[in-house]
């Protein structure tokens, strides 16, 4: 175990990365442990008083290439974050020279690969399709929930609720997402997607993430929506998902749901001791 570091005295190094505008603060604790608390996550995540992020991702040492832990902007935790996993995989590939990695999360063990042309692929594992795995509050048909609009429920290590609509741009996502994130059928809250089939194996999707709000992209939401579309016979199992921040490619294979897309390391910095002390 690395020694705990007194971050209030020496500051906290971090990286700012994003996958299609889904942005992250990433803290590497492999050399020295860092005490991450919900208050610290909320403080760093504030876009005016902190750095700002959709998720805070923590890299820890483990038996695999690395173990990852994720926090939402409200300080809550998430078992999965697909785009952050891809960003960290790209960082570790560049650090180690490897083209294949194994990363562990609360979701389980995830494989990552260099897909060429600057793209990174991650296998997000098998989707959770039964009501108790997702989880839902009661036994219902996950393909078409007893909710107005008949959305589909999918688990990708975190819960998802996908609405298929005629025009994704026409949905008032801020009000719509906030309402369904807290639907009583989802005891752990849910990510909400509005998805429009725009062509053969092509989906236009917008995302509301639990604990965050509207995001420009979401890897796990893209996986969940692709799985839902295939289950409903709207697409095949290989799809292109067009998000507000760009395009990601999803392939639901026998070994799990693979997603492939670009990543960006925007800058590195250090949170000052003064800022960290202000968070208590």
Describe this structure as you would to a colleague.
The chain is of the alpha+beta class and 280 residues long. It folds into 2 domains: 7-124 and 263-278, Roll (Diaminopimelate Epimerase, Chain A, domain 1); 152-254, Diaminopimelate Epimerase, Chain A, domain 1 (Roll). It contains 6 helices and 17 strands. It has a 17-stranded mixed beta sheet that branches. The longest helix is centred in the N-terminal third of the chain and has 15 residues, at 82-96.
Report the β-strand fraction as a percent range.
Answer: 35-45%
Shape: globular
Outline the low-pLDDT stretches: none
The helix content is: 10-25%
Major beta-sheet overview: 17 strands, mixed
> How many beta strands in the DSSP annotation?
17
Succession of helices and strands: HEEHEEEHEEEEEHEEEHEEEEH
- Tell me the Rg in angstroms: 18 Å
Instruction: Classify the oligomer.
Output: single chain
CATH class of the largest domain: Alpha Beta
Structural class: alpha+beta
Give the mean pLDDT: 95
Termini separation (Å)? 25 Å
Q: CATH homologous superfamily of the largest domain - what is it? A: Diaminopimelate Epimerase, Chain A, domain 1
CATH fold type of the largest domain: Diaminopimelate Epimerase, Chain A, domain 1
């Amino acid at each position: 175990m690395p020694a705990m570091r007194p971050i209030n005295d020496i500051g906290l190094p971090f990286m700012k990365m994003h996958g299609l505008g889904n942005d992250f603060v990433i803290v590497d604790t492999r050399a020295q442990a860092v005490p991450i608390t919900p208050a610290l996550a909320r403080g760093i995540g504030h876009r005016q008083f902190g750095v700002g992020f959709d998720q805070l991702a923590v890299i820890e040492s483990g038996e695999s290439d690395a173990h990852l832990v994720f926090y939402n902007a409200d300080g809550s935790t998430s078992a999965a974050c697909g785009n952050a996993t891809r960003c960290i995989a790209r960082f570790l590939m560049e650090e180690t020279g490897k083209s294949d990695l194994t990363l562990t999360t609360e979701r389980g063990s995830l494989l990552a690969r260099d897909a060429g042309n600057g793209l990174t692929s991650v296998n997000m594992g098998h989707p959770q399709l039964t009501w108790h795995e997702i989880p839902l509050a009661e036994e219902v048909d996950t393909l078409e929930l007893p909710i107005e609009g008949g959305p589909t429920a999918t688990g990708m290590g975190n819960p998802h609720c996908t609405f298929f609509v005629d025009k994704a741009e026409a949905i008032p996502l801020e009000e719509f997402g906030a309402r369904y994130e807290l639907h009583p059928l989802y005891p752990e809250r849910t990510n909400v997607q509005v998805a429009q089939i725009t062509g053969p194996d092509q989906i236009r999707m917008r995302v509301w993430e639990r604990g965050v709000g509207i995001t420009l992209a979401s890897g796990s939401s893209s996986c969940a929506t692709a799985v839902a579309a295939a289950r409903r016979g709207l697409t095949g199992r290989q799809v292109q998902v067009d998000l507000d921040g760009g395009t990601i490619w999803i392939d639901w294979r026998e070994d799990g749901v693979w997603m492939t897309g670009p990543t960006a390391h925007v800058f590195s910095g250090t949170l000052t001791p003064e800022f960290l002390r202000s968070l208590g």
